[in-house]
Amino acid sequence: MKPSFMRLWGVPILLGVLTAIGLLSALLGDGVWDLVSALALAVPVLLGTWHSLRKQGR
């Protein structure tokens, strides 16, 4: 059975959008935009770290 498009690509697309928002807010804004940038760029890093450190069920 083939997985649906969003089930397969939903998370990578979301991480790409978050990264783009983080980079654009860092370039175009100041003040609160720095916080938005830090949070948006931290999410992909934290998810990647969590994924690499979690124990495999093998």
Can you give keywords for this protein?
mainly alpha, 58 residues, flat
Structure description:
It comes from Pseudoduganella lurida. This is DUF4175 domain-containing protein. The chain crosses the membrane at residues 7-29, 35-53. This protein is mainly α. The chain has one domain (5-56). The protein contains 2 helices and no strands. Helix 1 (5-28) runs antiparallel to helix 2. The chain is flat and about 45 Å long.
Question: How many separate helices?
Answer: 2
Into which percent range does the helicity of residues fall? over 70%
Global structural class: mainly alpha
Number of strands: 0
Oligomer category: single chain
Number of domains: 1
Q: Order of helices and strands, N to C?
A: HH
Calculate the terminal CA-CA distance, rounded to whole Å.
24 Å
Strand and helix layout:
Layout: H1 5-28, H2 32-53
Helix pairs in contact: 1-2
Write a brief caption for the model.
The protein has helices spanning 5-28, 32-53. With 58 residues, the protein is mainly alpha-helical. The protein has one domain (5-56).
